[in-house]
Amino acid sequence: MPLYKYVLRRVLFAVPLVLGITVVAFLIANAVPADPINANLPQSALGNERLVAAFREKWGLDQPLHVQYLTYLGNLVQGDMGVSIRTNNPVFDDLRQFLPATVELATVAIFVGLLLGVTFGIVSAVWRNSVVDYAVRVLALIGVSFPVFLLALIGLTVLHAQLGWVAGPGRLGFLLSRPPHVTGLFTVDALLAGQWATFRNAASHLVLPSLVLGLYVSGIIARITRSSLLEVLYTDYIRTARAKGQREHAVVLRHGLSNALIPVVTLLGVLYGNLLAGAVLTEAIFAWPGIGRYAYRAATSQDFPAIMGVSMLIAFIYVVANFIVDVLYFFLDPRIRYV
Amino acid sequence: MSLITPPATPSTPLTVRRGHRLRHLRRHPEIVVGALVVIAWIVLSLLAPWIAPYHPLEQHIADRLQPPNDTYRLGTDELGRDILSRVLYGGRITIPAGLAVIVINSIFGWLIGAVAGFVGGIWDEIMMRVTELFMAFPTIILAMAVTAALGPDIRNAVIALVIVRWTNYARLTRGLIIEAKTNEYVEAARALGAKNPYLLFRTLLPNSIAPVVVYGSLDIGNAILLFAGLSFLGLGPEPSSPEWGRMISIGIHFFDQWWMWLFPGLAIASLVMAFNFIGDGLRDMLDPRTR
Q: In terms of pTM, does the model score above 0.90?
């Protein structure tokens, strides 16, 4: 199958999924709350009949459900996700403002997770059933069993408060000003502007939260890498490679790992989505001004439109991430091209 | 989006002869360790009213923010409540909540998955697409949205977790039913004149429930983590409640008083880890490749 056909098929697959996401979001936003007006308007507006009527009018609440959905979809296409009860801004604008911080954090975290997870997985598979293997497996279990917020608090206490190795909460020190806005990622923007001190400071603030989030996915990655590498290492072509007299590390890394990593790659899209969701708890603790913290503050102040906005945004990112993974997969696994 | 994908249908029957089972248990000590920790937590929380030194809500304002000492073994919080007593009582909220999520999900997911797998055709197609939709949503944030919509309390947190996690159960059951319905005993029952509901509940249910139960036991850890996460975010029980996640969310405002967040955190971690030990061990034990 040529690439364009494959991509087209994936796009056709993604479109109904995106539409479906809006249906689920709509149902939760309008069907689950006992009264959508109570859930979507601030307390102060509830007494004002004109505001309530305007809200009813805008979202078509007196229309049948399918018309309501179309109204909702129409508003959504124009970037209208409602107005945040807490900040009084359109949710869309808030999300645009807070997303870069989360993207920066989640991207660094997925690299941390991959680096730790794949290393642990290889070590664990090569020295199967040894002390190292057990240690790695327990570590992986800790990664998936410890609540993210506990890891974060322990990290803050030990690495920041006690040892002072890394910066604490926030994205930048108080004395520094934000780098000129290009991408919204502070590390990248600081580099682009040539502000080294700002870059170092921003990077130092990234260490702890990305380590905590990375540890959380590294456990999952380590498990998959281990089991898939173990499976691969017993195949015929590995025996052939060994029989040819290849060195063991070449056998494992070049022949084994490149095939063993395919399941890890397929999972990357899901993991990235997990990271964005895990970011809610991490960002809440590290005062990281991203969409996770936005969702947290929204949740604690019953800001329903804002939470719905975040969950829809992450669902969209999840679909896009999986789409990218599917395309990557096309290059990684030649078998797909012959289906 | 879930951390654990439903296990493939085990190719070997789950009921192994007893001698075999014991031998397997010896080779998987993590199951025993996990089970002991879980049982210990259940016993401790059942006995909490008798063994806890204080009532979880009893305030000793004069002794507020005390580090662990002889009177208050794990210290006190900002209102002088005994952390040890609160941690012991906390299990009485978290364990039943986690169990409730799993049990409701198993029943609900089994029903939906079974009907889809049994009826097949267009219904099956619709069900699969719907589960994909739910899986696209980030678990914790969707759960936050649902609890925020329903109003934060324990019951609504459980409902939210059911809404965000039933899909795994439904998909697992669907696969099991599709495989099971081709069996000869189903043919035989049908030939004897059995109607669909009878086939579903009397013939297929007993033959497909075991893997769902196993998956549920693997999933309790996740359910507890999510529940703790929700209540950490203030979407679970009320603020004064001795729930572990809630205690931590208050504890982070008293960052230097580490005992306020560390002990409830370790309570969650030890319980979830014990469940994951059992789950991992069971999965290894049931996977013929690792024998």
A: no
